[in-house]
Design brief:
Layout (H helix, E strand, L loop, with lengths): L1 H26 L2 E9 L10 E4 L5 E3 L5 E6 L3 E7 L6 E6 L5 E2 L2 E3 L18 H4 L5 E5 H5 L10 H5 L5 E3 L7 E3 L7 E5 L2 E2 L4 E2 L4 E2 L6 E7 L13 E7 L8 E6 L3 E11 L3 E10 L1 H5 L11 E16 L2 E15 L2 E17 L4 E20 L4 E23 L2 E6 L2 E14 L7
Parallel strand pairs: 1-7, 1-8, 12-17
Antiparallel strand pairs: 1-4, 2-3, 2-5, 5-6, 9-16, 10-11, 12-13, 14-15, 16-17, 18-19, 19-20, 20-21, 21-22, 22-23, 23-24, 24-25, 25-26, 25-27
Length: about 425
């Protein structure tokens, strides 16, 4: 009887939602949509508030800086507001047709550090579709005290509620009692299976190439495919499409270098960032004998290119390659390689599509060699992923957004054992 009652309540809810949707369609006439970018470098901004001045009607930009609002016909003042940036107001006229309004917001100049106090409704944790979510942009991460002066994405999220380190000097993290292997870590939607360099002292994410970090600790959205503990979603910069920019740094452990520039101004750009440690170079003069050929270093290379084909189509191509190498009478190394291709398409002012195809390859090698006994042991293992994932967002009205999509993923596990033992004099 209880099951019938649940089904009845569910059907009633669907009918009421449909009626509300029909009413909304009867009153809603036109749609305003567009992108919000940083005026300095053309980066599309995530989570910008776009709303009608003097009302509570509004929305936020998605992961690609796109927004859409459907309103009754008339004239409005449209506001784009984002913390750390100056708000922009544009007057729009929706009396006759849909309109496209793009914003380029300017970073706000402040002499003193601002304190922002936000208020939320008592039932926000129930109504919100993103419960237990923490978002950090790279500007916030850069203000956090850094280990050995090096900014680190993983260490920054360890300061958030519910997140604990796996141990001192390690970049792995546990979320609310979950194990480290129960976290899904994504770099531009491609999974990264080992997020650590130098046995956990640094993460694989180059801060010069990171734009946005989102940690989902509960109520994991279906588009991620589910995970036991948490999702760490890291988004890379798209590259400065306004002008050439270069930055880097020399640290005690490694040095880094990043370059970004327009390929076609305001239309296509790229970013290239690299890091390498040099402990092996500094230590080599002090090593002799069996240790003279020791290897201990890490490196990573991050790159991304984007191209705006036309107002309705944008293509992104990004990739990551990183490796840790250690050896002193033995071999031990691991590495990640990812590549992502994404296509953004606007079917209409209300329907946004993103299609993602990614490749991810994590491998590690353990090897030993004994010249005395003429023996060798090498173990190589790989986890390889191939995936295609179309996502759709339909902006039904100013209060309702529908997201739907699908994902196909192929897992390929490889393991190779190479063991060899020759004859010695004692074997004859």
């Amino acid at each position: 009887m209880k099951n019938y009652r649940k089904v009845f309540y569910f059907l009633i809810s669907i009918i009421l939602l449909s009626i509300n949707g029909l009413k909304a369609q009867q009153t809603v006439k036109h749609t305003v949509s567009g992108y919000v970018k940083d005026s300095k470098n053309g980066e599309k901004l995530i989570g910008v508030n776009v709303y009608i001045k003097g009302t509570t009607i509004g929305t936020t930009t998605n992961e690609y800086g796109f927004y859409s609002l459907t309103l009754a016909s008339g004239k409005y003042d449209l506001v784009a507001s984002y913390i750390g940036y100056t708000s922009i107001i544009k007057s729009i006229d929706l009396s006759t047709s849909n309109t496209k309004v793009d914003f380029e917001i300017v970073e706000e100049d402040v002499q003193l550090q601002e304190v922002v106090v936000k208020a939320e409704a008592d039932d926000q944790n129930v109504k919100s579709i993103e419960m237990s979510v923490n978002k950090l942009d790279i500007k916030t991460i850069q203000k956090i005290p850094a280990f050995l002066g090096e900014i680190d994405v993983i260490r920054s999220i360890q300061l958030l509620p519910g997140v604990a380190t796996v141990g001192e000097g390690a970049t792995g993290f546990n979320v609310r009692g979950g194990a480290i292997d129960q976290n899904l870590i994504l770099l531009d939607e491609a999974p990264v299976y080992n997020s650590a360099h130098l046995f956990g002292f640094f993460s694989v994410f180059n801060p010069d190439a990171v734009k946005d970090v989102k940690l989902v600790k509960g109520g994991i959205p279906s588009q991620y495919g589910g995970r036991l503990s948490s999702i760490l979603d890291v988004r890379m910069k798209e590259g400065n499409n306004k002008r050439f920019e270069m930055n880097g740094g020399i640290g005690a452990i490694f040095s880094r270098f990043a370059i970004e520039a327009p390929i076609v101004k305001d239309k296509a750009s790229f970013i290239l960032a690299a890091r390498r440690s040099y402990i092996d170079v500094l230590a080599k003069p002090f090593l002799s004998g069996d240790l003279s050929n020791s290897q201990f270093y890490f490196y990573d290379l991050t790159a991304k290119v984007n191209y705006i084909i036309n107002p309705k189509n944008t293509v992104f191509v990004s990739g990551y390659l990183g490796r840790d190498v250690f050896g002193a009478g033995f071999k031990f190394n691991w590495g990640n390689a990812t590549s992502t291709i994404r296509w953004n398409h606007l079917f209409s002012d209300r329907l946004f599509m993103n299609v993602t195809a990614f490749y991810s390859n994590y491998d590690y090698l353990i090897g030993f060699k004994d010249d005395v006994n003429r023996s060798r042991f090498d173990w190589t293992s790989n986890i390889i992923n191939y995936s295609v994932k179309p996502d759709f967002t339909y902006y039904l009205n100013s209060k309702n957004t529908i997201k739907f999509g699908a994902q196909s993923i192929l897992y390929d596990f490889l393991a190779i054992l190479d063991f060899w033992r020759g004859l010695t004099d004692s074997d004859n």
